[in-house]
Specification:
Blueprint lengths: L12 E5 L3 H13 L3 E5 L2 H11 L3 E5 L7 H13 L7 E6 L6 H6 L4 E4 L4 H54 L8 H31 L8 E4 H18 L3 E7 L15 E4 L1 H17 L5 E7 L4 H4 L10 E7 L6 H5 L18 H11 L3 E6 L5 E7 L4
Parallel strand pairs: 1-2, 1-3, 3-4, 4-5, 7-9
Antiparallel strand pairs: 6-8, 9-10, 10-12, 11-12
């Protein structure tokens, strides 16, 4: 009787591949005695065709076969798995040749290796072990798919009523349903802000899901960061002024290039303008949230001119550097260590979902850039984004 994990209610599907009929018969007998569903193939080419039709959980694969050997079959199956053309299939390589390399087999993607003549009990145990591996991976992948489907459904179904309520609040605010009192106006303002904050959280969760599901599409084009900075600064200026803060925008040249301050620096990158704007808005928004007095500085250092870029110490240092510097409460070393992690939350009373910086990192790294932070408690924080220049 075969051993199947408690959480599995299916019979193992096993493909046996060997060019010798006697070997096929022996292994088939052993496996069918344990009530597995077995298919046979006599060559590598036949095995690949059978994989497409039979969809086995496990392949017992002879290494030394004429034409396409077991190594090549393993390699092709793993390549199809990488492109999601096939689900995970466990592979056990079997060989009677002492020259067959266990290292080579495992390196190209096999999960286990056994030599002939094999002990029947040992073969059965390895089959059970590999089927447990297969079932475990299937369960993990199913759990991930269910989680992603749930997040996608949840964000979509939450976003629709939030957008609708935002429009209704705006109509109330504009007096579309009659005159409203000062007290009611204040209440509506609070509801609008709360609704917009919730909508922003839902949008962020949806964007995180798109990145993690690898279905995010970027519209790449030459993008001048000076224009992006000016837009974000203008948009967030009312929030800055409401807190009594100063907002400073600085556009400078890289040092020691001989470029005078009145020349135009190289501030273009190849990127998705809306996504880069999202990153800057998030960084400046965080700075506003955690700064009670002083200033917030957005500093852009243009790229090295092409003639000097080759002498820069690294490609990113020769690119464009964007910094957001605040005089806020700062962070401890422990907070800095997990700053860009998923669902990280600060102990600060104004901290949010913890997804904004995680999403910012995903966007920056998708643009082949880096994002980092420096901070000290009570002395503010500096966030630095480096992006390759577009010249």
């Amino acid at each position: 009787m075969s051993y199947l994990p408690d959480y599995v209610s299916r019979v193992g599907r096993i493909l046996v591949v060997d060019d010798l009929p006697d070997n096929l018969f022996l292994i088939q007998t052993v496996l069918e005695d344990s009530h597995y569903e077995v298919k046979l193939a006599k060559s590598g080419e036949e095995a690949l065709a059978e994989v497409e039709k039979f969809k086995p959980d496990l392949i017992l694969l002879d290494v030394m076969m004429p034409g396409m050997d077991g190594y090549e079959v393993t390699k092709r199956i793993r390549q199809k798995m990488q492109t999601k053309a096939l689900p995970f299939i466990a592979i056990l390589l079997i060989t009677a040749d002492e020259r067959s390399s266990v290292v080579k087999g495992l390196d190209i993607g096999a999960d286990d290796f056994i030599r002939k003549p094999f002990d029947v009990d040992e073969l059965s145990a390895r089959v059970r072990s590999l089927l447990r591996l297969k079932y475990s991976i299937d369960e993990q992948e199913q759990s991930i798919r269910q989680r992603e489907d749930f997040v996608s459904w949840l964000t979509h179904d939450l976003r629709t009523p939030l957008v609708a309520s935002d429009r209704m609040f705006t109509l109330f605010q504009n007096g579309a349903f009659g005159e409203i009192s000062t007290e009611m106006q204040e209440a509506i303002d609070i509801m609008i802000r709360s609704n917009q904050n919730l909508l922003q959280i839902v949008n962020t969760v949806l964007e995180v899901y798109r990145h993690e599901a690898k279905c995010k599409v970027f519209n790449l084009a030459p993008c001048d960061l000076v224009a992006v900075i000016n837009e974000v600064a203008e948009e967030l200026k009312p929030l800055v002024m409401a807190q009594g803060l100063d907002l400073v925008v600085e556009v400078t040249h890289p040092p020691n290039t001989g470029v005078d301050q009145f020349s135009h620096p190289l501030t273009q990158v190849l990127g998705d303008r809306l996504e880069l704007r999202r990153v800057l808005t998030n960084l400046v928004g965080n700075a506003i949230k955690f700064t009670e007095s002083g200033s917030i500085t957005i500093r852009l250092t243009g790229a090295y001119p092409p003639a000097l870029a080759v002498s820069a110490t690294s490609p990113l240092q020769s690119g464009v550097t964007l910094q957001v510097i605040d005089t806020g409460s700062g962070m401890s070393p422990n907070e800095l260590a997990t700053l860009f992690e998923r669902f990280r939350q600060s102990k600060h009373r104004r901290s949010g979902s913890g997804l904004g910086l995680y999403l910012s990192r995903q966007i920056v790294e998708s643009h082949k850039g880096t994002i980092s932070a420096q901070s000290e408690l009570g002395k503010g924080s500096t966030f630095t984004v480096r992006l390759p220049a577009h010249t």
